[in-house]
Model the fold of this input.
Amino acid sequence: MACNSSGCESGGCYGREKENGCKVVDVKETVRLCVKCKSNEPMTFGDGGSDDGRFCAECFRSNVYGKFRLAVTSHAMITPSDNVLVAFSGGSSSRVALQFVHELQVKALKNYEASRDRSLPVFGVGVAFVDESAAYPSLSGGMSDAIELVRSTVLSLSPPEKDLHVVTIESVFGSESVEARDRLVKLLDSVSDETGKEDLLLHLKMLSLQKVASENGYNRLVVGSCTSRLASHVLTATVKGRGYSLSADIQHVDARWKVPIVLPLRDCVWQEITRLCHLDGLKTVELARHPQSGINDLVSSFVALLQEENPSRECTIVRTAAKLTPFYFNKIPETDDSCVPMATQRRLKKFNLKYDGSMTTEAFCPICNGPLNGSDSSEDESDALYAACCSSCRFQILPQEPSSLDHFGSLLPHHMISQVKHHQKFDSQTYLREKIKDCLLLDDEEAV
Amino acid sequence: MEASEGKSKKQGASRLCCLCNQRRPVLKRPKTLQQICKECFYEVFEEEIHQVIVKNGLFKSGERVAIGASGGKDSTVLAYVLSELNRRHSYGLDLFLLSIDEGITGYRDDSLETVKRNELQYGLPLQILSYKDLYGWTMDDIVKMIGLKNNCTFCGVFRRQALDRGAALLKVDKLVTGHNADDIAETVLLNILRGDIARLSRCTSITTGEDGPIPRCKPFKYTYEKEIVIYPFITESFSCSFSNIYIHTYAYFKKLDYFSTECIYSPNAYRGFAREFIKDLERLRPRAILDIIKSGEDFRIATTTKMPEQGTCERCGYISSQKWCKACVLLDGLNRGLPKMGIGRARGGVNGDHQKETKKPASAARSLESKQCGSLDF
Done:
C-alpha cells in the first residue's frame, strides 16, 4: 500500500535489481538510463539515500505526484465543490502538499475554462499557518521571516488565488490577546510531563487549524503527513498505550473533526519529499525547535536508526498499522449533497467512499480526540474531566493531584471542556425531561 | 524488620517506605518509582504475580505444570516464586523443571549446572532434553555451518518444539515460561517492525496454544525485567550494610542461584534494536513497558485477518501451518547443506513447489525480517 511496485523509492530491494524493470546497463556505454522511461538520464541526488540514480527527474516527479493524485481520487479527498484548507508549516512535507494541491487546482481550472457547460466547479484552496512562538519562545526570532516566506510562497501560487490565514496558537482560546498568550503558558506549565506537553501542543495546534477552517468556510483540511511521520506516530502511539485509537490516526481520511482531515501524502516517504523540494527548488523553512527530550524524540531517533539498517522499514511499519481495523469515521462523511455535482455523487456512492453519519457510536477523549476503548472508562470517577479522558492523556497531560484538576480544566480551551460536560453522569430525570419537555404543559418549576 | 539505625550512610533518613510506612526504604521500585523497603518489595512482587495468576485463571488445581528452565534469572525466579506461591496459596500444582540443552559450549553447559542445582534447591524434578538427541545437531554445529546471522532463528524454532516434546514426555498439562514484560513489549515492537500482524494479535496473550499440543502461559507478563533482577538480591537476608543504600543500578547478585551471562551467539540478533530502545524508553517513562503491552492488547485486529491454517507436519507430526513444520524445514536444510532454506521468503523448497530443486541457496532476501521467518516465535 504505502510503497509498491516500481514506484517505491525506498525499496529495500537489495537483491531484486533484476526483477524491477531491467536496469539497462550496457557494458560498453557508461551512460545509464532511467529505469522507468528508459530514455532520460537518471537524477542523482547524492544524499546517500536508497535508489539514487534510478529515475530521471520527470519520472521521479510524476511518480510522487501520481501517488498524491491516487490518494486524492481513491479517497474522495477533494471534490469539485470543496473548499480546501492546506495546513502549511513551512516544512518540506506541507510545502509539497501545498504545491500538489495547487497543481491539482490549476488543472481543474484549465478544465473548467475549457469545458463548454462549466458543470464542474473548481475547488477552492486556502492556506493556514500556525505561529507557535507563544509555546516555544525560541521560535520568535525566526518567526517573522518564516511568515514572510509563507506569504510570498502563497502569493507565488496563483492563479488561482489563495487566502492565507496566519494564526497564533493561542487563538484556540478565542482571541490572540496577551491574556490568551498567558493562559497558554500557564496551561503548558501545569503539564509536568515533557512528552505530555508536546502532545498537548499538537492537539491545540489541530484545534486552531480546525477553528480557522470552520470560521472561514472550509470543508476539508489537508495535512502533509508523510509515511515517515506516520511511522513515528505508530510507534509513539504504541509506546503511550494508545493502541486502540492508533488506527484512527493513520488513515487517509480522518473525519472525527468538524472539518475532516485528509492526508494525501500518506504514501510518500520523507526521502521522496526532500528530494522533490530539492529538485523543484521549493523553498522551505525549518523552524528550530528547542531540544526535545521526550518520548517523541526518542522514537524519531529510533526510526532513523532503523531506516539506516533497512530503508523500507518506515513503509513496513505503516503497512502493518494499516492492517489494523480503521474506524467508521475514517471515510468522508455523508453530508448534504445538494451542492455536489451529480457525477461526483454517483462516483462516491459507487465506491462506498462515504460513511453514514448516524453511526456515531464512539466516545472521544476531550483532549486528544482519540476514540475511547470501553475498558478505559471508569464510571465512578469523581472528576468529570478525569473520567472523560483516555488513559494516556490522564497520565501524561492531566495533573496528578486530583485537587488540581479543576484548575487545569479551567485553563483548557472551551472546545475541549465542552465535550466533557456530555460525559458527566447525567441525571436521568433531567435527561428524560429534556426529551419530553416540548410536550409538557406544566411550568418547569411545578413539574414533578 | 527495622535495620539497625545509626549506620545510615546516605541522607533522606526521614523518608519511610511508601507502602508500610514503617521501615526505611532501600530501593526505588522500577515499575512505579516508589521508594520501598525490601520486605514490601518482595511482598508486592509476589502478590502481583499471584494476582495475575488468579485474575487470568492460569492454573487449575491438580494440574501438572512444567517450568521452562534455562538457568537464567527469569526461569530461576519463576521456579522459586511459583513453588512459593503454590505452597502459600495452595494452587495444588505438581511442578517440574524442564530444561533444553541447545549444545552451546561455555554457555548452556554452565547454565544447566545451575538448573541442576535448582532441582536440588527447590525440590522440583528436572528433565533435560538436548538438541543433539532430538535433532542430531547442536547449536555449536549449526553456527559452524551457517555463521552468526540467522542462528537465532534455528535456536528459537528448535527450542519451541523441544519444550513441547519435553512437556509431552513429562506428561504435563501446561508449560510456563519466564517471559517478562520487557520481552513481551519487545515482541510487540518487533512484530510491528516486521509487519507480522498475525503474530501481533497473539503475542500479548498470557496463555497461548490452547488448541495446540500444550498450552503455555507467562505469569511474568506484567513483571519488569529489572524487578526480576532485583528480587533475588533482595530476598536473601541482609546484613545491615545493605539496608541503607538506595539502589539505582541493579547489580547481578547470585543470592538466588542463577546464571547471568548472555548467549554467546546473540550479539547480532535483531531483537537487540528493540531491546535498546525499550531500555531508553524505560528510563524516560517506566510505565511505557506496560503501555506497549496494553497497546498490543488493544490493537484492533480483525478476527477474520488471515490466520495460518492449523495442520500437522508431514514429516514429524508436529503442529504446523505448512506442509512441513519450520523445524523440519530448517533441519532438512542443514542436513542437505542448504542452510538458507527456511530463512527468508519461501521460493521452491518443500513448502513451495515440490518440483523446483534449488541447487544453490535460494536467492531470497537475507534479512531476518522477511515474512515467513519463524524466528523469535512466541
Residues 136 and 285 of chain B are 46 Å apart (CA to CA). Strands of chain B lie at 27-28, 35-36, 64-68, 94-101, 126-130, 174-176, 207-208, 216-217, 311-312, 319-320. Chain B touches chain A at residues 188-189, 191-197, 200, 273, 277, 280-281, 284-285, 287-288, 290-292, 294-302, 305, 363-367, 369 (CB under 8 Å). The two ends of chain B are 42 Å apart (CA to CA).
